[in-house]
Fold this protein.
Amino acid sequence: MPRSSPSLDMTPMVDLAFLLVTFFMLTTKFRAAEPVVVDTPSSTSNIILPENVMLITVDTAGRVFYDITGRDVRTALIDRMGELYQTKFTPDQVKRFSVMTMFGQPMKNMKAYLDANEKERKVMDESTKGIPTDSLENELANWIMEGYRASAADGANKGIDPKSDKALRFAIKADGKTNYAKVKKVIKTFKEREIYRFNLITNLEEADK
Amino acid sequence: MNTGDGGGGGKHSKKRAKKSSTRVDMTPMVDLAFLLLTFFMLATTFSKPKTLEITFPKDKENTDNTTKIPDELATTFLVGEETNEVYYYVGKFQPDTTQLLKLNMGKDGIRKFLLGRNEKIDRQITALEEKFKAGQMADSTFHRLRSEAKGAKDAPFVIVKTCKLSKYKTVIDIIDELNICNVGKYAVVDISDAELLPLYKIIKPELVAAATGAP
């Protein structure tokens, strides 16, 4: 009598595969749509970017974009900036700002940008000249100062030691082809606010000595 | 796979109505599931970018430092427009006599040069690294000893000078090389007007000729 070939029921394996897929689908945090994609230079540094960071991005054209982590910090920040620039933001606009990531709009366009939908924002992102950094109208300096203050206040509330690793770090992400003078302007703005330690974002390369 | 053997039991007689198989082959669906799984597994590991930590000197300190460093220990890199080369001179700058030498941004160029200048300290730190990797030293001890070695009195000092043509990538590559060769003392500053002339003579001779009105 011919023996039937042994058949293995694969159902449990497929169940597990789907379980894993569901797990990964729920736990991956996708990068928010960035207004500008920057090709960072490579370095052999293996240090990972810390969580609590104020990120200044400079693209090839020298346009400056700003980002800072923390919803509470961002809420406090936009309120302060609104006061500084005599702009009243509605609670809705404040909320939109607090969940946004990188932006490169001067303060005069900020209200329009926060009210805009995704498509309009993309258009604004493409045509923007970035955050002003020239000496007469250095908005970046204010963003840095107020961001630092908002983060310090938030840290004090949560009991974070300003000297620890969880304190706010300053990072600069620039394209390899960016003219160094533009990055230097950003660094100069930091130095004027007494900030000297930075993390420069790079991608990993192998070093064989 | 427990795939349906299509056709079921097959037709028995002509009068029986044609029964289409109710068994579906699940293989492609499972293939897709594994594909998605692999995608997500790989995608989540890519998200963290790496950083290069750097501390810039305060501007006031800069002018003091250059007078305290003995000339033999100071190397100055002048960064031009190209991202694969850098020009240098050792010691103090003499406006008429200092010759700029070229280095490639590679293993046999800048790295060889820096390892040559920093040989003693590089060897010290490599020895420390070996000990640390072998588990003979605590983390904090290793970092402390390494900083001490890098900051030693006879450690070389590198000044990286940028002009308005310099690209960010070149500066990052130089800082990276300095870290690979364990050079601890360096600063990134603006090029001085006096140094700009010999640099431009090499990288932009046409501008120099136009400016000086060469015949």
Observations:
- Residues 157 and 185 of chain B are 5 Å apart (CA to CA).
- Residues 4-10, 61-65 of chain B have pLDDT under 50 and may be disordered.
- Chain B has one domain: 59-212.
